[in-house]
Design goal:
The complex is a heterodimer of chains A (264) and B (318). Chain A is mostly helical and 264 residues long. Chain A has one domain. Chain A has twelve helices and no strands. In chain B, a hairpin with a 2-residue loop joins strand 4 and strand 5. In chain B, helix 3 crosses helix 4. The chains are: A mainly alpha (264), B alpha/beta (318). The structure holds adenosine-5'-triphosphate and magnesium ion (MG). The site of magnesium ion has 5 residues of chain B, from helix 1.
Amino acid sequence: MSTEIRADGGPVWMLRDSWTEALRHLRAMPRSPELVMFAIIQPIMFVLLFVYVFGGSLMIPGYDDYTQFLVPGIFAQTVLFGSAFTGVGVAEDMSKGIIDRLRSLPISPASVLVGRTISDLVRNALTFAVMIVVAFLVGFRFDGSLFEAFLATVLLFVFSYAFSWVQAYMGLSVSSVEAANSAGFIWMFPLTFVSSAFVDPSNMPSWLQPVADANPFTILTNASRALYNGRDPGADPWIALAWAAGITAVFAYLSARKFARGAR
Amino acid sequence: MVVAEGLVKRFGSTEALRGVDLEVERGTVLGVLGPNGAGKTTAVRILTTLLRPDAGRAVIDGIDVVAEPRRARGLIGLTGQYAAVDERLTGLENLVHVGRLFHFGKAEARRRSNQLLDRFDLSDAASRPVLGYSGGMRRRLDIAMSLIAEPKVLFLDEPTTGLDPRSRVAVWDQIDELARTGTTTLLTTQYLDEADRLADEIAVIDLGVVIARGTAAELKRRVGGDQLHVVLADRDVLPTVAELLAHRAVGEIQLDRAGSSLTVPVADVDGIVPGVVRELDAAGIDVSDVGVRRSTLDDVFFALTGRPTQVDPVGEDG
Ligand SMILES: Nc1ncnc2c1ncn2[C@@H]1O[C@H](COP(=O)(O)OP(=O)(O)OP(=O)(O)O)[C@@H](O)[C@H]1O
Ligand SMILES: [Mg+2]
């Protein structure tokens, strides 16, 4: 009667199990409309607030229109903030005992986290679609080719995906959903504000400037901003990609190890 | 089928397990009985590959859980102390999801899920999100989820703690049914009556060691068994009644002349009262009252350790 050992391994099954896990989250998404609402309202609010509050008073050398400078920065920040869902989601699954159940199944442990990060990527893409519409309504335009805009967007998502793994690791490390929520957001404020996302770093105090210049988030923003505006991004896209690859490799490894060893 | 030898687990300075040996024979139910903090969950987590022991070994159907966790996972079903269900999904979706992770095809996963929903009396709620389920329904769904691939060994960590009496009986019936069909089961509980009702054998665990093992009757005998309490209208017949009931006693009968009553230690009080009343009636004895007192974990515990079980808030996890 009883089944022989099922659910064998291999990379193909790992990917299929990841997708099965991603579907668990994607299926649930429309059932918490308030979460979807916040995920949509937040970027709309950011675009409107920044463009209309700061838009008139900030002059950026090289940009006649602050909107063209600002909107790529908001894109970058929103997409990065979106990665925080991963940490909260992982912590939630853990607090409910779902992670324990999944760890007791004969599946590749990595698939649980891969599934989670993929589903958050999809959620992030939905948010981004709404945000782009709003940005166009307030006057933002792709000044380069569509292909360049596409590359800029891909870059943002690759970067955000890397940070999903940072969040996954944090979600596995903290003891509650609330902790995951605060721990996941708190460091993203300095990361995104001490950067070129909203202002020109050369106006920052001299001790802060080098920090902003070295910030990988500055490099990401500069790369996408150049591409959206049809300018030459130089080596920035490659540097940003290298950062993303490094962060993904390190934190995917750390998370998978933590997951396999038992988070608690 | 399941063998654990000398399991040791430390958390910082806490020694959760200090050399636990457990054995579950194929097709039987082992009840692991212990108070809060005894180490029940820790033992279950080690056996189900969720936690590595600091020392000792655990083998399931010949497979070492530390050396080959993945193979061991293919043999087991786990229902943890707290229902591990995805509240955002429906009951059916939860089951199908686990089925898919066991690599059953869509149709097969659905077929198995529907069967389990039916068996666990959840068919009516199958397409409702689990968020609206009661504690008992969640627990039943949780157990159903651990059965989707027909595990050879089932682990249930306090399957009825926190349930109302009706849900409790429903879960008991399900576990009985599983035992009847030969699923090897290890369950933990804080209640002697539960272990008594469900388990073929009981291991009493305290402060990380097994302090006694045996059948429920054997354990009860060690604490003097259950107690039958008879109050008489006339204290002068006490010796006569003691003689009449001697054949039921498993220990010394206590006479209380002042209260005109006697206390008889018996192996099991289940269904004993009508027989006793009839017997005494037939002998023409005027009975005022007959009561029973079942021995509890506290009695067993006190008899074994000489101290009462610590009273921790039930349901707090370590
Ligand atoms: N992750 C952990 N970190 C630190 N201490 C722990 C951890 N898990 C368990 N303990 C400690 O180990 C001991 C045994 O805990 P365990 O959860 O196994 O007990 P239990 O018998 O399941 O109790 P309960 O009936 O409350 O569920 C307790 O003292 C507990 O505080
Ligand atoms: Mg426990």
